[in-house]
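User: Hey, quick favor. My workstation is busy. Could you predict this chain's structure for me?
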Amino acid sequence: MKQSVLVGLSVLALAACTPQPSTQMRAGTQPIIPAAHAAGSPGNTTNGFDGTYTAGTIETISKGKELDLAGGNAPIYCPNSGTAPPLTIHNGLAQFQALNLYTFQGYVTPQGHLKMDSGKGQTIEGQIDDQGVLRARGLGACAYNATWLRNV
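Assistant: No problem, here it is.
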């Protein structure tokens, strides 16, 4: 009995010594580990746009919604994606995942400009307005317009 009490107290003491998340983090944000391909500069950013952005849309702007692959061997389809995946900004670094294949990252400037890179040739560039709306254009094999709304 004494041994199990000592083990329980040791576990509680260890948990109390574990670093806790910063109280300065906004609700819904989690730390993001910068990738080598993150666009922008960590020295030219702000946490003024930190938060989670959801309820957005993605719409293809590729002509005909289908492109010929180089060499004409197969078409590339550019479907409308509908709802945009959640985008998170923490300490000025933005990130979102598309199609479970691409992780876009980039730093928001103090003026709200955001450029993100997938590290695989696709980029997204946009602006966050004073209402918390991010409007962006994505370029790769297909072209898209995307919009995200900041959760309050």
